[in-house]
TrEMBL record:
<dbReference type="InterPro" id="IPR029063">
    <property type="entry name" value="SAM-dependent_MTases_sf"/>
</dbReference>
<protein>
    <recommendedName>
        <fullName>SAM-dependent MTase RsmB/NOP-type domain-containing protein</fullName>
    </recommendedName>
</protein>
<keyword id="KW-0694">RNA-binding</keyword>
<dbReference type="InterPro" id="IPR049561">
    <property type="entry name" value="NSUN5_7_fdxn-like"/>
</dbReference>
<dbReference type="InterPro" id="IPR001678">
    <property type="entry name" value="MeTrfase_RsmB-F_NOP2_dom"/>
</dbReference>
<keyword id="KW-0808">Transferase</keyword>
<comment type="similarity">
    <text>Belongs to the class I-like SAM-binding methyltransferase superfamily. RsmB/NOP family.</text>
</comment>
<dbReference type="Pfam" id="PF01189">
    <property type="entry name" value="Methyltr_RsmB-F"/>
</dbReference>
<feature type="binding site">
    <location>
        <position position="185"/>
    </location>
    <ligand>
        <name>S-adenosyl-L-methionine</name>
    </ligand>
</feature>
<feature type="binding site">
    <location>
        <position position="140"/>
    </location>
    <ligand>
        <name>S-adenosyl-L-methionine</name>
    </ligand>
</feature>
<dbReference type="Pfam" id="PF21148">
    <property type="entry name" value="NSUN5_fdxn-like"/>
</dbReference>
<dbReference type="GO" id="GO:0008173">
    <property type="term" value="F:RNA methyltransferase activity"/>
</dbReference>
<keyword id="KW-0489">Methyltransferase</keyword>
<dbReference type="InterPro" id="IPR049560">
    <property type="entry name" value="MeTrfase_RsmB-F_NOP2_cat"/>
</dbReference>
<dbReference type="InterPro" id="IPR023267">
    <property type="entry name" value="RCMT"/>
</dbReference>
<feature type="active site" description="Nucleophile">
    <location>
        <position position="237"/>
    </location>
</feature>
<feature type="domain" description="SAM-dependent MTase RsmB/NOP-type">
    <location>
        <begin position="1"/>
        <end position="313"/>
    </location>
</feature>
Amino acid sequence: MHFNPFISVPRYIRLNTLLMKKAEAMEYFEREGWKFIENTFETYDEFIEAVQHLDDESFMVDFHIKNLFIFPASSKKHFASNELAAEGKLLLQDKASCLPSFLLNPPHKSTVLDMCAAPGNKTTHLAAIMKNKGKIYAVEMNAKRYQTLTKMVEGTNATIIQTMNRDVLEIKDEEVPNIQYILLDPSCSGSGIVNRFASDINKDSNRLYKLSGLQFKLLTHAMTSFPNVKRIVYSTCSVYPEENEEVVLNCLQRIGHFKLVNAAELMNNQWNNFGNETSYPNLGSKVLYARMGEDGYKSDLTNGFFVAVLERCEEDEFNEFYLQKQQNIAVHNEKFGKRKAEKVDENVKEEVQEEIVKPKKKKKWINKGYNQ
């Protein structure tokens, strides 16, 4: 894959609805001299085309996330020192980073676990989606990143968030009771981030192996340790399938009581980039990628990102990947058992043949007392 340097990522500004209303934000931008472009596009492709031609004085609202504003790439320096951003009312967050929270979409008063929460953009987005009603446990193991997380939570008035400086793999259900929704955005290669956009040539296979192992452990923990979970969103800022489709497939093959949800349907079938259906049948087309100027893909004008949505199966229901894996194991065991039985039978047959063919030895009677 190659990054297209001629496509620039716009500036995305997420409105923190816990501190500011949308109408107030619109008025502020217009006072600052920005001209609002009404979003009347029927398709996502039409919207992308309009964003690509956004002039230096105009802004729009995102096609999917209605509290996400889009400004031209030239505005990045302006918003870096914006007073509303300093107050936590406006958050500088790429659209791709908003997708996991948007797709998890926990209702008000639900209980959520953010397993790898720092720096807190997704966590505070969840609090806004839930309108500050419910409970969010935000876990971060790294001490320095944990400080960043707590600072962001405090600065955004997200009062339903309880931060935890812990290793999430050690957290049990009784410590965070009644978890219903889980967001897992673990450490990854970061290969989708524009300023360090990676190619297959630059892959570090050893690092990817270690990362995918950790990602597998974390997703397995999410799927097996919290019995009340209804939905899990797994995401990375990576474009490598080893951290994405491969991790999701391995977990689904081993854990039958969660199934993959078609992310396209959650986006109202208005999205362009998905996983590799050829390499991952019945999985690739259901997971979502955000892509930025790669050869062979339509641009989403965002950083590279991956999102998969899992939901708990109905009682006595198992996902198709688990069932197929179990069937393959059964077939293998049957064949192996048959071959083993045939080998045992053959050995027994050989032993019997040896006894039939082998001449019997005559017993030699020896009476030690009477030998002459």
